[in-house]
Amino acid sequence: MHEIAVDGNYLSQVDTRVNNWENKDYCCTGIWNPESTFKMKDQTVELIPGARSDVLVKANLTNKTGKIFEACNADKMDETYELRANTYLSGRLDPSTANYVNYVVAYVKIYSTPVTDTNLPNNEEMVGLYPFVDINDNNVKYNQITTFNTDQPKGGNDGDMACNSNKDKTPRYPIGFQVNGHIFDDSQPRLLELSPVPRKPKTKGQVADNRPQTGTDNWEISSADPTRNHVFHIHTNDVQTTRTDPLGNTETLWRDSLLVKYGQPQTILTRYEDFDGKTVLYCHLLSHEDMGMMQVIKFEKLDEGMVGH
Q1: What structural domains and CATH numbers belong to the chain?
Q2: What would the pLDDT profile of 101-115 be if each residue is shown by its tens digit?
Q3: Single pTM value for the model
């Protein structure tokens, strides 16, 4: 699989993730054993609630010897492959409380007739598609803090009451899902200073300067909830973050959703250039969002620096 974009934003390189075969192909053995058949570490595309990934899948009819592909069964002149997703159906941290479901999300059918080979994009082409000028630490004007936390009274549930009040007749109290210690309140927006200069189109190879820039902030994202994972999601402005690419190198990318784990804070960078007014940030797990884990943010142009935000 060749990943070329995340959350609608092109990467600066093609991230190729492959299965490293140790035994015979699955189609020939008929045995599906991820531990012994191929190594999967760092070769999967992780999708969290709200996230998107653009992946290219390339197949051809020639094997490593250059011969036209021959099906495992002599009477079978084509092959069908399954693209599967191992789905983690819970936001909880403890895997023993989670449900795992293996879904087939797509079928790839290869016919035993020669096809014209199609080239994948190369890294040089991807650089030209990269959507933003990266931010460096010297550009940051303000620091923002966002912490997901819960206020769970004794006997509290996990939000089930909001979905099914008849599920359990035992008296319980709903959990307060919060951002920075407060449940959603649209009358108390977080104020963010908008850049006075609209964004200009990015030019290839352009880099940011080393001065603080109005409308450019550093965010510290964390979870104070020891029992669940959360998903940071923000509208209007994407954020700059990093991850480890398939080769083990640090990769910078832009996205709008981040998995936030207890005890593993993340630092992201972002800028506000084009749109003023109100929008929201929240946990993209629906039950958490509906129970109050959301915050209004408001972009404003100010003549002077902002105080106490």
Answers
A1: 2-126 (no CATH), 129-300 (2.60.40.420)
A2: 667 777 777 666 656
A3: 0.74
